[in-house]
Amino acid sequence: MLETTLLPHTSSGVHFLSAHAVIRQLIRSSGAGPGDLVIDFGAGPGTLTAPLAATGARVLAVERDEAFVRKLSRRFADQPLVKVVHADLRTVPLPSRDFSVVASIPYALSTVLLRRLLSRPRRALVGADIVVEWGFARRVVAAQSKETAAWARKYEMRVARRIPANCFRPAPRVDSAHLVIRRR
């Protein structure tokens, strides 16, 4: 079983992806475009939300921090394709229609999010391009536990690239990975 420790809400375990080349690769890899529904979990300041919206996709920017929600709401007020959702990724209702995920989430929430996305009886998730901790990504794609093996039967999972810690502000202590997930 994958292990994770949930950080308290007040913890500062937040690292914002700041490398433009990595952001462009995430968006390009996702294939997001007009008519698609894409969720940016942990949208923060909108680092991924803005380029996702530029593809013409409908974007749900899910953020639990009230200050970021206010900033996102102001930033995207004139963009009808972006809906800012003040919610926690652990509990926000997921769409019943096909959707994709492009997100850079706190490491501590990686297992929780993948369980929500990949263990659903209905297969609404089309694909995901998620930034997670390097070691976590390697464990997921190895599919050695019962849980990850079950996910691998429904989804193709691979590491697209390693993302060095210096691509974030502030930099985490470990590298990250661009985890690609596609429905089989």
Structural features, described:
With 184 residues, the protein is an alpha/beta fold. The chain has one domain (16-183): 3-Layer(aba) Sandwich (Rossmann fold). 29% of the residues lie in helices and 28% in strands. The protein contains 6 helices and 9 strands. The strands form 2 sheets. It has a 7-stranded mixed sheet with strand order 4-3-2-5-6-9-7, sandwiched between helices. Strand 2 (37-41), helix 2 and strand 3 (58-63) form a beta-alpha-beta unit. It is globular, with a radius of gyration of 15 Å. The chain starts with 15 loop residues before the first strand and ends with a strand. Mean pLDDT is 92; it is low at 1-11.
Helix/sheet category: alpha/beta
Order of helices and strands: EHEHEHEEHEHHEEE
> Which fold name corresponds to the CATH topology?
Rossmann fold
Bulk shape: globular
**Which architecture name does CATH use?**
3-Layer(aba) Sandwich
Rg computed from alpha carbons, rounded to a whole number of angstroms:
15 Å
Uncertain stretches of 5 or more adjacent residues? 1-11
Percentage of residues in helical conformation: 25-40%
Largest beta sheet: strand ordering: 4-3-2-5-6-9-7
Q: How big a fraction of the residues is strand? A: 25-35%
Mean pLDDT level? 92
The N- and C-terminal alpha carbons lie at a distance of 22 Å
CATH superfamily: Vaccinia Virus protein VP39
The major beta sheet can be summarized as: 7 strands, mixed
Count all strands and give the number. 9
Q: How many domains, in number, for the residues?
A: 1
Total helices: the number is 6
- Under the CATH scheme, which class? Alpha Beta
